[in-house]
Task: structure prediction
Amino acid sequence: MISLSRSDLDPSLVFIAFLALYAALLTLRAVRAPHRIGRPVSEEALELFGACGGAWFSTALTTGSLFAAMPLFLLCMTGAAVVRYLTMRLSMPGILWMTATAAGFAVSCLWSVLFIAEMGLPEPLRTLALAGLGLSAIVFALSQFAGFAREAVLTHERWRLPFTPPGTGEATSSVKVSLQLPCYAEPPEVVIETINRLAALDYDNYEVLVCDNNTRDERLWKPLEAHCRMLNERLGFERFRFFHVAPLPGAKAGALNFLMKHMAPDAEVIGVIDADYFARSDFLARLVPYFADREIGYIQTPHDYRGQQATTYLTACYWEYMPTNKVDYPGIHEYGGAFTIGTMCLLRTEALRKAGGWAEWCLTEDSEVSVRLRAAGYRGYYFGETFGRGLIPETFDDYKKQRFRWTAGPVQQLRRHWRLFLPAPLAPALPGWTKLLEVMRCISPLQSVIGLAMVVAGMIGLIVARMTGGMEPVHVPSILGLLIALGAATWWVRTKHRYHLSGCTSTEDMIRGEIARASLSWVTLTAGLAGLSNKPLAWRRTPKFAGLEEASSPFASTMPETIAGSVFAVLALVMLALSGLLGTGLALLSFLGCAGLALRFFCAPVMAAMAIRRTRPNATVAGWTTPRPTLPQPVPALSRDPADRLRGRPASSAGRPLVH
Result:
C-alpha cells in the first residue's frame, strides 16, 4: 500500500507556483492591449515548452529534487497541448494560466487535507477545519469558473461577440432615442454642460428629458429649465424638455419611471445619462445601429471619469475603478453576462416596459434591470470603449457611500431574484453564463465576511487547543515561504498587467489604486451584511459640489476602519508573542495574516487624508474640461453660449414644434 504524506506534494506545489508565474509573464508579453495579441502564433510551442520546462527546472533547483515534480510536469504539458488542440479561442499563455490554476486547486486541496491530518488537532477542531476546507473548495471552484469569463481579456485571443462598436456611425437614423437625465440637487453649471454635450450629438432623431426630482432650492433647478428653453429656441423645435417634480419617491429609479411616462411615444431606445457625464458626440451614432438586432435589449459603455489628475486622492479613486471597467466587464460580456451600470447606457424601450421598468426598491436599480431584461429573453452588450466621463466623488466619505450602494445592491438583487438563478429545469434559461456570473458577483461581499469570520475562528481555536494541551505545536512546512514569495510575485505581475490594460502606466498610480481598493474593505463587509436585511436601505446620493470638506482628521470619518485595523494590529503582535505556544512558523504566518488585514483597514484613513489634502482645483484630461463645481450664488449665471456646439440642424421628426 502506498502511503502519501504532505511533504510528498511540496515539490508539486512549487512547480505549480513557478508555472503560474511564468504564465503571468507570458501573458504580460503577449496581451499588449484588450483584445489584441502582440506576438505571432508560431511562438506557442516555445511558450508551452518554455513555461512547463522552466517551471520543472526551477522546482528542481529550489527543492533539490529532480524527479518529484516530473509527473505533474508531464500532466500539465500534455493537458495544455490537448486544450490548445480542442479550442482556438484561448491563447497559450491563457491555457497555461488555467492549467496552473486547475492543478493548483487539486493539489492544494489534497495537500491541505494531509496537512490538517498531520497537525494533530483535537477532533472537533479537525472536523471544523475539514468542513471549512470543503466549503472553501466549493466556493473557490465556482469563483474560478466565473473568473474564466471575468479574465477573458487576459486569456483569449479569439472572440465570439463584438467587443467594440464600428468606427463611424450614420449621421441620421430612423430610430428615435429618448435620452433621460435624472438629477437631484446638482450643481447647475455641471448639468448645463452635460446638456450642452447632448445638444452636440452627431445624431438627428432624439429628445432629451431632464427630470429634477425633489430639489427644494430653486437656484439649482431654475437655470436648467431656462437653459433647456434657450436651446429649444435656438433649434426652432422642442428637443429638450425639463421637469421639476416634488415629491417624487424612488430616487433615481423613481425619476426614470416618471420620464418613461412622459417620453415620446415613438422612441424605440432609451438612453440614461447621469447629470455629471459629458457624452462624446458619436455616442448614439455608433451604438444605436446595434438595436437592429431585435434580441439586443441594452448596450452599456464603461464608467469613466475626468479630473483624476487634480489630486492624489482622485488619482487613487480613478485607477481603482478602471481595471474592473476595462478588463473584467468586457470578459463578462463575452460570456453573455453583460449588465447595465447606470449611465452611458442604451435600452430598448419595448424590452424595458416588458421587464416592468426600474426597480425603486434596489440600491443598484441600474444593474438590477439587466437581470429582468435577460429573463425577458433579451441579450446585452458591454463595450470597453469610453463614450462619456463623469465626476469622481469629491470626499472619501462620498466615495464610501457610492461603494456601499454598489455592494449592497447586488446582494438585494440576489435576495429578490434567486429563483431566476436556479438550474435550467427549475428556472428559465438565461443567456450565456448569466446565472453563475450574477450569483458570484452578488455573493462576493458575503464571501469576504464569511472568510474573515473563518480566519478569526480558526486562530482562536488553535490558541485554545494549544493552551488546553489538546494539540502539539504546529510545524509549518519550510516551502511555505517560497510559495508566498512566488505568489506575491505572480500577483504583482498580473495586477500590474491589469492596470496597464486599463491605461495606467505609472507604478505609483497603480499603488494608489490598490490603496483605494483596500480602503473599501470595511464598507464592503458592512454593505454585504446590510444587503441581507429585509428593511429598505436609504439611497445615498453622491454630492458633486466642491468645498464640502472632510472632517479635520482623517481618523474622524474612518473610525470603524481605524478600530478594525488596530484590533488586527494587536492580534498580529499577540501571534508573535505566542510563538512559543503555537510554534514559530504558525505564529509568523498568523502574524503576517493579521498584519495584512490591519494594513488593509488602515488604508481607509490614508485615503481620507489624501482627500483632505487637495493640491490643484482643476484639471483637463484628454480634452475633457473639468470644472469643479461650487455651491451656487443667489443669482446663478447660465453656462456659456452653447451655440458653437449646435449644428444648426433643421426641424424634423427629431423634435416637437416649438410652442411660444
Notes: The chain has a mean pLDDT of 88. The two ends are 96 Å apart (CA to CA). The first strand starts at residue 31 and ends at 33. The chain is about 55% helix and 10% strand.
